[in-house]
Amino acid sequence: MQFDDKDKVIIVDFGSQVTKLIARRIRELGVYSEIITPKELTKIKKYRYIKGIIFSGGPSTVTGKRFQSVPSDIFKKNIPILGICYGLQLIAKIFGGKIKPSKKRREFGRAFLIHRKKSLLTKNFLNSRKSVWMSHEDAVVKLPTNFKTIASTKNSKLTIIENSEKKIYGVQFHPEVTHTDQGSQIFKNFLFLICKIKKKWSVVSQKKKLLKEIRNTVKKDKVICALSGGVDSSVVALLINQAIKKNLICIMVDTGLMRKNEFKYTYKIFKNKYNLNVKLIDSSYLFLKKLKNISNPEKKRKIIGNLFIKVFEKEAKKYKNIKFLAQGTLYPDIIESRTSTGSKTSKIKSHHNVGGLPKKMKLQLIEPLKEFFKDEVRILGKSLGLVKNINFKHPFPGPGLGIRIIGNITVDRVKILQEADAIYLEELIKAKLYNKIWQAYAALLPIKTVGVMGDSRTYENICLLRAVISEDGMTADYFNFPKNFLDSISNKIINNVRGINRVVYDITSKPPSTIELE
Ligand code: XMP
Fold first, then answer.
1. If you ran DSSP here, which 8-state letter would residue 293 be given?
2. Which residues, at least 6 apart from 102, have a Cβ–Cβ distance to it below 8 Å?
3. Which protein residues touch ligand 1 with a CB less than 6 Å away?
4. 8-194, CATH topology level
5. Which of 8, 185, 375, 494 lies in disulfide reach of 125, CB 3.0 to 4.6 Å?
6. How far apart are CA 332 and CA 324, in angstroms?
7. How far is the CA of 396 from the centre of ligand 1 (A)?
8. Count of CB atoms situated within 10 Å of the CB of 204
9. Active-site residue identified among 107, 162, 176, 518
């Protein structure tokens, strides 16, 4: 548990893809929430600050002999409980209901609720025809003892159930996803009408506490930080700088694989505007040399990651008495590093981060953002005066353009891509689309195609444009651009970047594809 002294709602994670969204929805409503595993639930000793418990959805089934469950005494603590999807089925099973796997009753996607009875949980929610998002194969077919049916759908009778006396509620649909109309109202009712919890959580109110913690941990020692100019490392640097001033050393390693002019811009901002002790190391030559003739994505990732560590370590050694390494680890990174079932999800890509550094350099880690989601980090960034250009910047991967230049990486190809990418971002900002998109970038494909320009044949590169909407990068949809934007961006890139004669737009979602190409 991270805060032992704060009113909170705990979310028991049974492995749903969208558990994180439950935590976010609750925090958006001004209440602190934490995600724990079913095993961690069994180890809780102090319940004083736990004002509500939510059971998430998950891939398990209560119709088998063995299934993930909770200790039965959890229902005796007089703490309100809300089960979502698998969570509802688990509650139904524990209280004597019947659950069946059923092809007839399964629901995926949109369903409409039919109102049966009044409930605190559905106040101001069931007053109009509600479309909710479903994803289940099992269904509760017999109501558990002392429960009432609040709403049904065409396919499943027991979609919302409650035992208001014991304050136990269950919903078959997912109120946490945006596809459910006004899903937040369910959480509002659960938190404020049922749990009677007070709105106390705000990111900014945590700032004072974080600053104090950093001061108490670091004391008079030195902290080093790899500054990339992304939101997370920038917020970490400003926060630590505010706490300990001169004892923070920031190192920016220019791999030569960054966006056009971006690194120098960031360097200037941190040096001149924020007066940080920041050093820029230009290692672009070294990175490009090591990447020569390497086209395998995993090899590229390893080379870039390892070289980054080497360069950083060499630079850090020039400073004496460094005890801490500051990193921008976020709450989703912490949740993802452990699963509810203990099974490891298969590795899709090896991520570049500076994770190897603390061990190698015998440094202690400081991770002040480890309780926050990305949007919360941006709130913190704003309160620290971080410039909008950085605070609202799209995520950018550690290996940078190295994994957006498919095939071999050369100086020329980096330049071509930087130009096209810069035009793309500039046009997105001009068209006021940048902030509607979670991540956008240009990439260079490893094939050339024939074109015709000014009556002459050309044989040049294809530039791929990607733009996605997402909540956390785990799943994503491609952004639906207006046709005139696509027309004009294609035209602008081809007219202004030598070496590109064709522009394509990637219209795949994640899954089945990923956000980056490599
Ligand atoms: P994928 O391509 O896996 O990307 O759908 C999901 C999100 O992660 C970012 N990404 C990275 N971020 N180091 C990072 O810090 C990496 O090595 C890395 N690879 C992918 C990607 O940009 C997207 O936001």
1. T
2. 137, 138, 139, 141
3. 349, 351-353, 395, 397-399, 439, 473, 510, 514-516
4. Rossmann fold (3.40.50)
5. 185
6. 22
7. 7
8. 12
9. 176
Among residues 47, 20, 371, 375, the alpha carbon closest in space to that of 206 is found at 371
Sequence-ordered list of residues with C-beta below 8 angstroms from that of 484, at least 6 positions apart, any chain:
none
Q: What is the predicted pLDDT for the residue at 405?
A: 98
Ligand 1: centre distance to CA 378 (Å) = 18
Pick the CATH number of 204-391 from 3.40.50.620, 1.10.20.10, 3.90.870.10, 3.40.190.10: 3.40.50.620
Sheet strands side by side (includes 364-366): 278-282, 248-254, 222-226, 322-326, 364-366
The whole-number pLDDT of residue 179 equals 86
Task: Give the pLDDT confidence score for residue 345 in this predicted structure.
Answer: 47
What pLDDT does 344 receive? 43
Between the alpha carbon of residue 157 and those of residues 141, 161, 255, the distances in Å are 7, 10, 58
397 CA → ligand 1 middle, Å: 5
Q: pLDDT means per 10 residues in the chain (518 residues)? A: 75 92 94 94 93 96 94 96 98 96 83 94 92 92 96 93 98 93 96 96 90 96 96 98 95 97 96 97 98 97 95 93 93 72 58 75 91 93 97 96 98 98 98 97 97 94 97 89 98 97 96 94
CA–CA dist 229, 210 (Å, integer) = 21
- The pLDDT value recorded for residue 362 is 84
404-505 architecture in CATH?
2-Layer Sandwich (3.30)
Q: How far apart are CA 131 and CA 180, in angstroms?
A: 6
DSSP for residue 420: H
174 is catalytic: yes
Virtual CA dihedral for 337, 338, 339, 342, nearest 10 degrees? 130
The pLDDT score that the predictor gives to residue 314 is 94
List the catalytic residue out of 107, 162, 174, 225: 174
CB 312 within 8 A of CB 355: no
Q: Give just the sign of the alpha carbon dihedral 176, 9, 377, 297.
A: negative
Domain ranges of the chain: 8-194, 204-391, 404-505
Residue 359 exposed, middle or buried by CB count within 10 Å (0-12, 13-18, 19+): exposed
| Best mutation site among 257, 351, 404, 471 for ligand 1 pocket (most ligand atoms within 8 Å of CB) | 351
Atom of ligand 1 nearest to the CA of 396: 22
CA 112 to ligand 1 center in whole angstroms:
36
Task: Tell me, in angstroms, the distance from the centre of ligand 1 to residue 251's CA.
Answer: 22
Helix (H, G, I), strand (E, B) or coil at 138: strand
Concerning whether 225 is annotated as a catalytic residue, the answer is: no
Whether 195 is catalytic is no
Question: Which structure tokens are listed for 256?
Answer: 């030569």
Q: Do 204-391 and 8-194 fall under one CATH topology? A: yes
Q: Which of 515, 517, 518 to mutate to test the pocket of ligand 1 (most atoms within 8 A of CB)?
A: 515
Region for 396 from its dihedrals, namely left if φ exceeds 0, alpha if ψ lies in -120 to 50, beta otherwise: beta
